[in-house]
């Protein structure tokens, strides 16, 4: 059967490609950075933004402390595809870029997967603040990043097998609860569940809040 997609009540097919792209900000798992400065790479999210807005986006992405430690600050060049930055630093630049765009819809595709636990928690708090008043779609295998979502959608081989909030899904004892238990055990054992798709045959979990927390 066909599914009709609507954004803010409007049929997706009635929207222009330009208006749709303008309304969406994406933070992918593998961020593409330019061989230019940190400032340029963040500013790329909205070329007309002021320096104050760029710096505010960097703070929201927990990037400012790192930039302050650099001798050239925002003018530090990141190298080809950001090779001078760690994976976590690259992702924070991508998050800052998306926040600078200030879109109505934010899509985070494994956006915190390259971050250590402490940084992830700090950024997650900022993501939840950024999601207020807009729609945020969070694609994740690390379930701790979506536990506060308004709605969690669990996919298995491309099909929806469960949906709901965190606590009710745990109570059901289904696929989501099994993934959650496995990840908690891995964390207690000191291993990291990130990027272990082969250990989670259920596939991905989506957090799809409507103008709430991500």
Automatic annotation (TrEMBL):
Compartment(s) of residence: Cell membrane
Record keywords, A-Z: ATP-binding, Cell membrane, Lipid transport, Membrane, Nucleotide-binding, Transmembrane, Transmembrane helix, Transport
Region called Disordered, residue ranges: 185-214
Membrane topology recorded in Swiss-Prot or TrEMBL: Multi-pass membrane protein
Keyword presence, Cell membrane: yes
Gene Ontology process terms (BP): lipid transport
Signal peptide (residue range): none
Annotated PROSITE patterns: ABC_TRANSPORTER_1, ABC_TRANSPORTER_2
Annotated Basic and acidic residues bias: 194-203
GO MF annotation: an example: ATP binding
Domain ABC transporter: 3-182
Keyword Glycosyltransferase: no
Gene3D superfamilies: P-loop containing nucleotide triphosphate hydrolases
GO annotations of cellular component type: plasma membrane
Name of this chain's protein: ATP-binding cassette domain-containing protein
